[in-house]
Amino acid sequence: MTDPENQDLSARRAKLDAALAQKTGKKEEKSKNSASSDTGWGAAVKISSEFIGGVLVGAGIGYLLDSFAGTAPWGMIVFLMLGFAAGILNILRATGKVAEPDNRMSSSTSDDVNNIADKGDSKKQGD
Fold first, then answer.
1. Quick check: 79 and 65 in contact, CB under 8 A?
2. Which CA distances in Å does 44 have to 30, 31, 127?
3. How confident is the model at residue 78 (pLDDT cuts 50, 70, 90)?
4. Are 51 and 91 in contact (CB under 8 A)?
5. Which of 39, 40, 51 is nearest to 90 (CA)?
6. Total structural domains within the chain
7. Are 83 and 51 in contact (CB under 8 A)?
8. In a domain, 122, yes or no
């Protein structure tokens, strides 16, 4: 190839790269906006299913207890309330307002152990 053909090819290539970068930038912005709305919808479905699941499981256990034990409405009432409480707890865990039981125990235990060890070290230094 000759030099003018190389320059023409380089100019066309640069023009194509610029056009592709512009198109790709628009697609990335569009995908970011749709991803955030999809994430919100997914979180809403997850939270509502956590709550509905807790209530339905409580109602089911109460119904089965009533049918086997013959305790007419009391099993359903008690377990429906327990299911409601479990649903609320599941929502709080899903949103991060309440820690999982394993995480809560391990972090507080390690903090307590570190605080006790620090207090013991300061007493030894002060004596």
1. yes
2. 22, 20, 58
3. very high
4. yes
5. 51
6. 1
7. no
8. no
